[in-house]
Amino acid sequence: MRTLNKTSVFPAAEKIVFAKLKELNTLQYIAKPYVAFLPEHGQENIVWEENAVFSFRFKLFDFIPLGTHTINVISFSESGGIYTHEHNPHVPIWNHRITLEQIDQNRTRYTDEVEIDAGWKTPFVYLWAKAFYAHRQRKWIKLLSGHE
């Protein structure tokens, strides 16, 4: 198992960042073009909340199908952050924690912490995840700066 940590300072208040985290289209925007998350049939109206489970058709670079990616939401709150247990056929363990820390009225420290276990593929998945989370946080900053 490998653990990845990536932190950035976002140009927005914690409440604004958390409000954006609640929206599926935010995940889809910040993940693109690395990954496409397409809700499984019947799960189009996603509301991120504690104890919810969601399944997505998972496409690498928006065109290579990698099966179903499942997200089990363990916790989802502004004060406690977000913690999910995720998996797909290629990566059986992808535990993701998001923490938010208000710096001042217009800035929030945002951290992604991801535990990855993909067996012998773990080093390769970890390197991909490192690039993916750097990309996600750059897209977050672009979104929050109004330059989407």
Structure description:
The chain has 148 residues and is an alpha+beta fold. The chain is 26% helix and 45% strand. A 7-stranded antiparallel sheet has the order 1-7-6-5-4-3-2, with helices on one face. A hairpin with a 2-residue loop joins β6 (93-104) and β7 (107-117). α2 packs across α3 (122-144).
Largest sheet: 7 strands, antiparallel
Kindly report the average pLDDT value: 94
Strand order of the largest sheet: 1-7-6-5-4-3-2
**What is the first-to-last residue Cα distance?**
34 Å
Helix content: 25-40%
Give the CA-based shape: globular
Short synopsis of the structure:
By secondary structure, the protein is α+β, with helices and mostly antiparallel strands.
Descriptors:
single chain; 7-stranded antiparallel β-sheet; 148 residues; 26% helix; alpha+beta; 45% strand; globular
Topology:
Layout: E1 2-10, H1 14-21, H2 24-31, E2 35-39, E3 53-60, E4 64-77, E5 81-87, E6 93-104, E7 107-117, H3 122-144
Antiparallel strand pairs: 1-7, 2-3, 3-4, 4-5, 5-6, 6-7
